[in-house]
């Protein structure tokens, strides 16, 4: 049974379930529709899931001071991933869910300059989820927790960026990049082998 | 043995560096001959962490020795186990031995470290990771060079790294410093090992659903009363969160959360500990579905289906079903015998199709990971509103208020389509009335594979349909009923009253679901419907169309508001202050403190629940008894959909109401009381 058909059936079942009020699923789960969101980005504009309907979308949780974000940014690994898939018209959003006063929290202006100094290739200024609502809706546990969403709005991958939870950048070449693997397989219509993994990293500082 | 020359060699293009390297060499060469040098690289350190060796001064030839990397960690900071849990990372050791062979790192059992919204697996305080080292034959000396990498976290994490070396002579006998040996032994004892047999054995592990994995253990020896702690090794499959633990005569059940979307592996590894020692649970095969309930713990399927059938028969007598069936029976008296078989078939088809549809919907929702249970259709305000309108119209027509009644009677009585509809109706109004025998069967249906669950639903349906079918097929039985006549009109009018009663009850449920506006919306809809009927009685086409319009508008308005208005929060269990609202951590806490706990799983739409409440639970003597024995009273109100309560019910093997769970003080056992309570049962709890 294809993913979309299964989803339709589930949506139908939910609709028939006499609109039970609290059936909301509390996380972005592989194979399920991505939770909707509406967040203010660092420039003050509102970004919603519906803005990216019909396109492949990567959502990355970010904390500039987390050793694991630094592993992938200081090494240039994350930037090259962003650049590579931007070239294939994949959209990429970067979210900070750190509460004010906690590690990784950024004011809008700071977030603008961090994106620049990190040389990020992202589709919108960094999303500032200071109240943690989007992070909780997605069940984002760590930075960098990665989600890949297909053009139908269904989550196809949730978890770590790759298979090696070392904080050392030297582990990157030997690791399997799950995000790249999910995008490559998904975009060429092939089944995605690893749809979830333990999202290694630092805890999101809600 | 020395790293500086290697790391410096990257820069050997520069003369200055070359000279610098030569100097370093010279100084280090000099240091080798000084007696104190063995300590020079005996430690590695970073923020909040110092690592040192726990190793003997002399190794014993041909004997494997376990040495330790002893991590001394600042208070409140943590280093991690092999599976670090939701965040964090295990330390890494890259070992290069010379004159020895080494095995894999051995990890003492961890503790669960709740950190904000996450759970990590690691260590409180200092820990030693152990490494087996075996000197090579005839080696006079062995040396190890280890590159370490670790992560130390409080809330924020700090990475650390370093290199440690160890050079030791190999002699006849291992020679330890007493303190180091004691520390090594302390942590060696905590490494999972099969040297002694595990007090717990694995019965099986299976996927409970898409989100949960259940591990069943059997206790042996002297451990029958204690609950072990289990840690999963595969962090990609199972989350680190504390599993839900239950214990009964069959053993211990641990329900773990699966990492969402992770594919099941064929087997998995865990470790189990009593807090002192630990044992590996290696390569436990995982079943994709719970085993059929055929083991000694539960009834065979045929018995469950039989119970469902009996429950279905009893449903006919329930106050919510009885009037609907009575209409049908009245219709039957006026039906020629030849058509009765058709009636029976159509009615049974209606009942079974509706049960199959409801059951299928329930299973479909269950398979997509939603926590719902039987009676879920009555957790929705629009459905209640629809039932109110239906029962109201039926009651009015029974009372002879409007002519439409005759048509309804005709429909319900004569045509096959009508019989089918009556069957559907009977199921729909029957769902809140879970009677005796049904609880066990429906509870089993919640965890059984889909086909068996469906068999139970259909068994229930067959039971519901059985008495009517019997009457249809047996003219002898039907002949015993009085002949049709004027009495039928009187009976019909009389039967309106149970229907009015049902309306009142449904209004009350709606009030619980939506708050005060529920009453208002419900009664306004009833009023408008009567008004529309009165208006529609006219021969005037305009008036009749207006009446239809008004009814339609009223229905649309009522349904939209029913869907949008939410109940005021916190009003659900305000009625009796003795009762706490459901909170699983509070219950666990009370049980841990040795307090007895009584949980009343109830809902406004569950009539049996209301009866038990009024006649037993909320009476003064019973309340006094509870108070006297310091029982924590918990009312789990399932009027609204509540996943936490659904889960708790599932853990008890039930998913219909009422359920009364009793945890006697200081025990791990849960006792389920009968669905129809009596005061003497409560008294027995304390004798």
How would you summarize this macromolecular structure in one to three sentences?
The complex is a heterodimer of chains A (206) and B (687). Chain A has helices at residues 3-16, 67-74, 77-86, 108-117, 133-138, 178-187, and strands spanning 38-40, 46-48, 57-61, 91-96, 127-128, 142-143, 146-149, 155-159, 202-203.
Structure description:
The complex is a heterodimer of chains A (206) and B (687). By secondary structure, chain A is α/β, with parallel strands linked by helices. Chain A is built from 6 helices and 9 strands; from the N terminus they run αβββααβαβαβββαβ. Chain A is globular, with a radius of gyration of 17 Å. Chain B is elongated, with a radius of gyration of 36 Å. A 7-stranded mixed sheet of chain B has the order 15-18-19-13-14-17-16, with no helix packed on it. A 5-stranded antiparallel sheet of chain B has the order 1-2-4-10-7. A 5-stranded mixed sheet of chain B has the order 20-22-21-23-24, covered by helices on one side. Chain B has 5 domains: 1-33; 38-188, Immunoglobulin-like (Sandwich), CATH 2.60.40; 200-287, Immunoglobulin-like, CATH 2.60.40; 301-379 and 402-495, no CATH class; 580-685, Glutaredoxin, CATH 3.40.30. Helices cover 43% and strands 23% of the residues of chain B. The A-B interface holds A 9-10, 13-14, 16-23, 25, 27, 29-31, 65-67, 103, 139, 141-142, 155, 158-159, 165-168, 195-206 and B 84, 86-90, 92, 115-118, 149, 151, 153, 155-159, 161, 235-236, 259-263, 361, 364-365, 368-370, 372, 376-377, 379-380, 382-383, 563, 566, 640-643.
């Amino acid at each position: 049974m294809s993913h979309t058909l299964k989803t339709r059936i589930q949506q139908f079942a939910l609709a028939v379930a006499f609109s039970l009020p609290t059936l909301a699923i509390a996380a972005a789960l592989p194979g399920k529709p991505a939770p909707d969101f509406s967040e203010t980005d660092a420039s003050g504009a509102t970004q919603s899931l519906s803005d990216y309907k019909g396109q492949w979308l990567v959502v990355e949780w970010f904390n500039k001071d987390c050793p694991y974000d630094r592993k992938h940014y200081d090494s240039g690994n994350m930037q090259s991933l962003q650049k590579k898939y931007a070239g294939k018209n994949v959209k990429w959003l970067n979210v900070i869910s750190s509460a004010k006063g906690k590690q990784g929290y950024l004011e809008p202006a700071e977030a603008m300059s961090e994106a620049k100094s990190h040389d990020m290739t992202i589709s919108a200024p960094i999303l500032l989820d200071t109240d943690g609502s989007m992070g909780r809706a997605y069940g984002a546990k760590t930075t960098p927790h990665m989600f890949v969403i297909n053009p139908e709005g269904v989550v196809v991958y949730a978890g770590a960026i790759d298979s090696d939870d070392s904080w050392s950048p030297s582990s990157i070449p030997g690791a399997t990049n799950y995000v790249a693997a999910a995008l490559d397989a998904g975009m060429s219509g092939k089944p995605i082998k690893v749809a979830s993994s333990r999202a290694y990293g630092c805890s999101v500082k809600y | 043995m020395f790293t500086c020359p290697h790391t410096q060699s990257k820069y050997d293009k520069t003369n200055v560096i070359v000279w610098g390297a030569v100097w370093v060499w010279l100084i280090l060469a000099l240091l080798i001959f000084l007696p104190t040098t063995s300590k020079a690289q005996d430690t590695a350190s970073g923020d909040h962490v110092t690592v040192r060796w726990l190793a003997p001064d002399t190794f014993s030839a041909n004997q494997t020795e376990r040495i330790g990397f002893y991590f001394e960690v600042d208070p409140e900071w943590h280093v991690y186990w092999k599976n670090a849990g939701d965040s964090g990372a295990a330390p890494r050791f890259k070992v290069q031995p010379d004159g020895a062979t080494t095995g894999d790192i051995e990890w003492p059992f961890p503790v669960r470290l709740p950190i904000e919204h996450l759970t990590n697996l690691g260590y409180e305080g200092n820990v030693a990771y152990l490494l087996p080292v075996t000197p090579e034959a005839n080696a006079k000396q062995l040396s190890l060079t280890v590159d370490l990498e670790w992560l130390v976290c409080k809330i924020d994490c700090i990475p650390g790294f370093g290199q440690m070396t160890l050079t030791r002579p190999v002699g006849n006998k291992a020679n330890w410093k007493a303190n180091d040996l004691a520390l090594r032994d302390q942590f060696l004892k905590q490494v999972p090992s099969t040297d002694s047999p595990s007090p717990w054995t694995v019965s099986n592990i299976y996927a409970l659903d898409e989100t949960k994995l259940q591990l069943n253990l059997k206790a042996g020896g002297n451990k029958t009363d204690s609950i072990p702690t289990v840690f999963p090794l595969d962090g990609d499959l199972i989350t680190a969160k504390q599993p839900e633990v239950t214990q009964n005569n069959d053993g211990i059940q641990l329900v773990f959360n699966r990492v969402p979307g992770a594919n099941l592996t064929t087997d998995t590894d865990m470790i189990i500990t009593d807090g002192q020692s630990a044992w590996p649970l290696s390569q436990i095969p995982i079943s994709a579905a719970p085993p059929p309930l055929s083991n000694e713990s539960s009834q065979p399927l045929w018995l469950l289906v039989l119970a469902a059938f009996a429950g279905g028969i009893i449903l006919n007598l329930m106050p919510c079903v009885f009037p609907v069936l009575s209409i049908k029976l009245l219709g039957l008296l006026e039906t020629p015998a030849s058509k009765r078989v058709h009636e029976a078939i159509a009615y049974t088809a209606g009942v079974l199709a509706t049960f199959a549809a409801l059951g299928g919907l329930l299973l479909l929702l269950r398979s997509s990971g939603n926590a719902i249970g039987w009676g879920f259709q009555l957790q929705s305000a629009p459905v209640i509103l629809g039932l109110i309108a239906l029962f109201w119209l039926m009651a009015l027509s029974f009372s002879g208020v409007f002519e439409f009644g005759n048509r309804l009677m005709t429909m319900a009585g004569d045509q096959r389509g009508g019989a089918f509809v009556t069957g559907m109706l009977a199921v729909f109004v029957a769902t809140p009335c879970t009677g005796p025998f049904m609880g066990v069967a429906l509870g089993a249906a919640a965890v059984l594979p889909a086909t068996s669950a469906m068999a139970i639903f259909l068994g229930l349906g067959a039971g519901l349909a059985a008495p009517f079918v019997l009457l249809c097929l047996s003219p002898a039985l039907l002949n015993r009923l009085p002949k049709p006549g004027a009495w039928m009109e009187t009976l019909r009018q009389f039967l309106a009253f149970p229907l009015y009663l049902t309306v009142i009850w449904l209004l009350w449920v709606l009030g619980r679901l939506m708050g005060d506006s529920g009453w208002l919306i419900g009664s306004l809809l009833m009023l408008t419907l009567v008004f529309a009927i009165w208006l529609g009685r006219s021969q005037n086409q305009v008036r009749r169309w207006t009446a239809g319009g008004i009814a339609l508008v009223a229905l649309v308005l009522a349904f939209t508001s029913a869907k949008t208005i939410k109940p005021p929060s916190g009003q659900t269990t305000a009625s009796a202050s003795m009762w706490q609202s459901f909170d699983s951590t509070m219950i666990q806490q009370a049980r841990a403190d040795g307090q007895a706990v009584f949980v009343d799983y109830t809902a406004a739409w569950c009539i049996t629940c209301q009866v038990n409440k009024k006649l037993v639970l909320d009476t003064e003597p019973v309340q006094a008894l509870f108070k006297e024995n310091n029982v924590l009273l918990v009312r789990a109100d399932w009027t609204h959909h509540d996943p936490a309560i659904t889960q708790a019910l599932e853990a008890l093997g039930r998913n219909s109401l009422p359920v009364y769970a009793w945890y006697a003080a200081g025990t791990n056992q849960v006792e389920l009381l009968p669905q129809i309570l009596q005061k003497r049962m409560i008294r027995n709890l304390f004798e």
